[in-house]
Design goal:
The complex is a heterodimer of chains A (about 210) and B (about 180). With about 210 residues, chain A is mainly α. Helix content of chain A is about 55%, strand content about 10%. With about 180 residues, chain B is mainly α. Chain B has one domain. Chain B has 7 helices and 5 strands; from the N terminus they run ββαββααααβαα. Classes of the chains: A mainly alpha (about 210), B mainly alpha (about 180).
């Protein structure tokens, strides 16, 4: 429900993206307080978000197919994918931890890609409903987005502790690089998206 | 507290003593973070042998497997960005408690905001916890001094983030603005 609030944009004002000063600075000039470039909207937000989101979506496939690590015990290697890592925790009956890791490594990255696609499409077709809900989704994504990095940190720790030559070894796999790239791309995509476009498009001036 | 009427995001919150409190909490977090880097994070015991790893060793190991891009990402998010965040905040806030503004404070404060979302200490700690559980059936793994110190960094760093009043800092370090619409 687009409402009749007076916005900075309508009053010829801009809010500095860095220091939040609301001033009458013209678009593209410098903020009078902190000298950051002041723009009413993030430049090329939609194009950049689309590119980053689609790349993340494509790389999400190899990130889940390739193992993130191989556990070698007595000469026998067992490659583990992201999902297998979660399954192992469930099998070990570590339910609370399994749930947290499931959310961090499966729900968060997949959820982020889906939310980004939904936000992008809803803005492009000028959807006029669920404005506040879409802002909540955007903020959820900003808050929880970086938790997927837990798998990357985990592999680095396990590979260092359990090295070749001892009783067993853990080798990092290709999946780490793909999964890490997906996490970084979704973080960059969330940063590139300008949530004010949700309101702009609902009011018909994208 | 002032929040956006349209979407509910908090725009402005006033807390007294914000600057000295944030400076003290940030200093504590920074000192603890130095401790983190000098002590083992995880200790693995098997038979009579002990293997341990520090934060930096953990990050560098993947370099031996040729995954340097992962090494760089891990080093940046677990070490460089959190340290840089605390350092530039201290550079801005400590002199401010004495009413001084050092050259480059504006750039420093901008940088602190820029690197903040890329520091992932909390996520790293979850990784430490999962590592302990995952290795439990193979060997005895205990968190080292650095793991507890990292927990302290997370608590102090989060408290500093909550205490920080951006508007107040910008008012002190930024160029004076005659027509100030928000406050
Ligand atoms: Zn500004």
């Amino acid at each position: 429900m687009p409402s009749a609030h007076l916005t900075a944009r309508a009053s010829g004002l801009v809010r500095c993206p860095t220091c939040a000063l609301v001033s009458g600075t013209r678009d593209g000039l410098l903020c009078p307080r902190c000298s950051s470039s002041v723009q009413r909207r993030k430049p090329d937000s939609l194009q950049r978000t689309w590119a980053l989101t689609l790349s993340a979506g494509i790389l999400y496939i190899p990130a889940n197919i390739y193992p993130i690590m191989t556990v070698i015990k007595m000469g026998y290697g067992e490659p583990k994918t992201i999902i297998a890592g979660v399954m192992a925790l469930i099998e070990a009956n570590m339910w609370p931890l399994a749930l947290i890791v499931f959310i961090a490594s499966v729900i968060v990255p997949l959820g982020k890609i889906i939310i980004l696609l939904y936000l992008l499409i809803s803005v492009q077709i000028g959807l006029k409903t669920h404005l506040k809900e879409r802002m909540i989704l955007y903020r959820l994504m900003e808050t929880f987005g970086h938790w997927s990095m837990v798998d990357i940190f985990l592999v680095t720790m396990l590979a260092t502790l359990v090295k070749t030559g001892s009783w067993a070894s853990i080798e990092p796999g290709m999946g780490v690089t793909f999964f890490g790239t997906v996490v970084i791309l979704t973080l960059l995509a969330a940063q590139a998206f300008d949530p004010r476009l949700v309101w702009d498009s609902a009011h018909g001036h994208l | 507290m002032l929040s956006c009427r349209r979407c509910g995001a908090v725009l402005l919150q006033n807390r007294p003593d914000s600057i000295p409190r944030t400076a003290a909490l940030t200093l504590g977090a920074f000192i603890l973070f130095a401790v983190v880097n000098g002590f083992p994070l995880l200790i693995l015991k098997i038979g009579g042998r002990e293997t341990s790893l520090t934060l930096i060793e953990g990050a560098l190991e993947l370099g031996n497997h040729g995954m340097w891009e992962v090494v760089i990402v891990v080093l940046l998010t677990s070490l460089v960005f959190p340290a840089l965040h605390f350092l530039v905040l201290l550079y801005v806030l400590l002199p401010l408690t004495l009413g001084r503004v050092l050259p480059g404070a504006i750039m420093g404060f901008k940088m602190a905001d820029m690197v903040a979302p890329w520091g992932m200490i909390g996520v790293y700690l979850l990784g430490v916890l999962v590592a302990v559980v995952k290795l439990a059936d193979l060997a005895t793994v205990v968190p080292g001094v650095a793991a507890y110190a990292l927990g302290g960094v997370l608590v102090l760093g989060t408290a500093a983030g909550r205490a920080l009043n951006h508007e107040m800092v910008w008012n002190r370090i930024g160029k004076s603005v005659s027509c100030h619409l928000l406050t």
